[in-house]
Amino acid sequence: MATKQNTDLSERDIGYMALANSDLGAMMAEELDGLDAGFERVKVPSGGGLMFEMPGEEGGDPEAVKEFSAVILHHHPLHVYYATKYTGGNQPPDCASFDGLTGEGEPGGPCRKCPLNQFGSGENGAKACKNRRRIYVLREGEIFPLLLSLPTGSLQEFTRYIKRLLSKGRKSNAVVTRFTLRKATNAGGVVYTHAMCIVLRGLTYADEAEYFRTQNLNVRPLTKYNLFKAGLEAGDKVCVHIDEICRANGYMVSMSSRGFNNISAIYALITVCAVYGYSTLDDTLKLIRATWEGVSNATRREFLVGVAEFVHRFGPVDFAQRMRYKNIAAIWQDYLAETSHSNRQTCDPAMRKAFCRVLVRHYNKGLAANSRKRLEMEG
Prior knowledge:
Layout lengths: L23 H8 L8 E3 L9 E3 L8 E3 L1 E15 L13 E3 L4 E4 L3 E2 L18 E10 L7 E5 L4 H13 L7 E11 L5 E12 L3 H13 L5 H10 L3 H12 L3 E2 L8 E2 L2 H11 L1 H15 L8 H14 L4 H5 L4 H11 L10 H16 L15
Parallel strand pairs: 1-9, 12-13
Antiparallel strand pairs: 2-3, 4-5, 4-8, 4-10, 5-6, 6-7, 8-9, 10-11
Helix pairs in contact: 4-5, 5-7, 6-7, 6-8, 7-8, 8-11, 10-11
């Protein structure tokens, strides 16, 4: 006879409590073994459209809806800057931040102090750096969250909504939010769509509120890998192209750095693309594999950005042939002795140049002083 403990989703487990009494870990381990457990996304239309595009039932065609309701589990900023006007395709941003705190690329650094993240730095008094908001929402009776990416035009209204909740002592994950769309026109006369949020109802049932309270006490902050996977599922062009390049070279973007084929230095990958371009990332990964096949330390962030700087300055040259038998541990120790760059952020040009300088020294070892193969690093 079935009991409460061995029933995944009983008739009594309705609404958001469907999650509380289901063995989610076991279900995922069994059903998603070897599969990608990324987030499906909700699309906000452009040009004044008033219908959300939701994932279809049973993997069918997307469903167009005027509104939907869900609990906001988590939300975080996303910043993207293009030095030249974005024209679509696989054009990487010059700088990007997946946490709204630190930009990776050029100019990089703290977002709050960046002049490109100030009003008036872009067209029509807007910011040159485009700010968005990624929201992870859970619909009633479902287990997997959906990813909703709010465009810049929706941020002001979303901010008001969050403030209204806070003024009443509530957080966004303590209420069921109804999402709708409204047409608006900006100062330049361009029609756009922005999302509206209203409280549908509070999670007043004691068991539901207690469940979410417990979840919040034990929740872990989203990792760089989580943000990258969310971007991948959302069709973010940078994440998609990085994933394609890594896979083409036999690597996997991963939470773990164990194993040569796993790359966990996600911000390093983003930095290489933002600073040097996608082709340099492709050349860098090819060169690392050809030179240090099987050496796991070769895919850590310092090697990735340092080799990318080398490729940017000198091209592949005879790197693999000359560096293949060099002691990689000695290269690392020389880098640490170079200066205090080991604690620098990946976006710091000084870090990339310092590692490249060490690579050049090891490349030149054994070459005659007048050899044409010797490399000279300027700057």
